[in-house]
TrEMBL record:
Name assigned to this protein: Resolvase family protein
Keywords on record: DNA recombination, DNA-binding
Origin: domain of life: Bacteria
Entry keyword annotation includes Flavoprotein: no
Any GO MF annotation of the entry: DNA strand exchange activity
Alphabetized PANTHER family for the sequence: DNA-INVERTASE FROM LAMBDOID PROPHAGE, SERINE RECOMBINASE PINE-RELATED
Length: 220
């Protein structure tokens, strides 16, 4: 049996706190306990999941893992948020004999996918081709779902800016309390690094210091 590694990724500097890492670490710890595993290494980083090339800890981890090793993630979005390149990387690791476990997405973890592919190998040509296509579709659909969620989130934030109170005569520099709408936007911002802090500051007409204060309040 190979080594088991855990990988945690966050999306923004504000998510470096215990709240974001804590949820992932709790899930990973529980998985290890339930499956009698010990992680050789727990990799943490705060880079976007849009690309693999800019993730230093991921690159180090890829150099360490060998055939028979396992990498555990809380969910598929911690692995990647890009469908096509994500699928290519998934299959590349699968072919190298490296297992990927997604605690919240078990149907696309490699043990389940390998079972489907093994079944496909035993079928006639038509059934084999059909099952292999189903496996590919299953992976791409899930990866695409993650990417689309990111794009929708960005669009909603930008739409909110265009329809903000500032355009209806709100006084510049007037600071409101932490409203439910602002809290919701901050939570969205914390989940996706591609959402810009400056956009939220413009939408709610608040200063950088105020925005930072509200981010800390939401984290607490």
């Amino acid at each position: 049996m190979g080594n088991t590694f855990a990988y945690m990724r966050i999306s923004t500097k504000e998510e470096r706190g215990l709240q974001k890492y804590g949820r992932q670490e709790k899930a990973l710890t529980k998985y290890a306990k339930d499956n009698n595993l010990e992680y050789i290494l727990i990799a943490k980083e705060d880079e976007s999941g849009k690309s693999f090339s800019n993730r230093k800890e991921w690159k180090k981890l890829e150099k360490l893992v060998q055939s028979g090793d396992t990498i555990v993630f809380k969910d598929i979005s911690r692995f990647t948020r890009e469908a096509e390149k994500g699928y290519q990387k998934y299959m590349e690791l699968l072919e190298k004999g490296i297992e990927l476990i997604f605690i919240d997405n078990q149907t696309i973890s490699t043990p389940y996918i390998k079972q489907l592919l093994n079944v496909a190998e035993k079928q006639n040509l038509v059934a084999k081709t059909s099952l292999e296509s189903t496996v590919k579709l299953l992976l791409i659909v899930e990866l695409d779902r993650v990417e689309q969620e990111r794009l929708i989130l960005i669009k909603r934030i930008k739409d909110g800016i265009n329809a903000s109170d500032k355009k209806s005569g709100r006084i510049t520099g007037n600071v409101d309390k932490l409203t439910d709408e602002l809290k919701t936007d901050i939570l969205k911002y914390k989940k996706d690094r591609t959402i810009k802090a400056i956009d939220l500051m413009k939408k709610h007409n608040i200063s950088r210091n105020t925005f930072k204060k509200y981010c800390d309040l939401v984290s607490e």
